Amino acid sequence: MEAMRQSWSDDRLDGLSDRVDRGFRHVDERFEQVDERFRQVDARFDRLEGCMEAGFQQMNDRFDRMQQTIMVTGGGIIATLIAACVAALAG
Fold first, then answer.
1. pLDDT tens, position by position, for the chain (91 residues)?
2. How crowded is the C-beta side of 36, counted as CA atoms within 13 Å?
3. Diameter of the chain by CA atoms?
4. Per the structure, how many domains does the chain have?
5. Which residues form the domain of 70?
6. Mapping DSSP to helix (H, G, I), strand (E, B) and coil, where does residue 13 land?
7. What's the pTM?
């Protein structure tokens, strides 16, 4: 037990400190790489969001045109039914 305590000299502690510092620098470098990947993913999501908004706008335009077609067709059917009823009552 005594031999272990004596083996931790200032030089060994300085060496350990240097290794720990190098390890943290390595971790910092890896986090920089992770941050860069997140920036790339954010850019991809921004592009995807733009594409989705354009697609949703196209769908909204189609639904608006379909609604207009249904209203015109329904109005035509109602007008035809009214005209048919008037003709039946008059005749």
1. 455 555 677 778 888 888 988 888 888 888 899 999 999 999 999 999 999 999 999 999 999 999 999 999 999 999 999 999 999 998 7
2. 6
3. 124
4. 1
5. 2-90
6. helix
7. 0.50
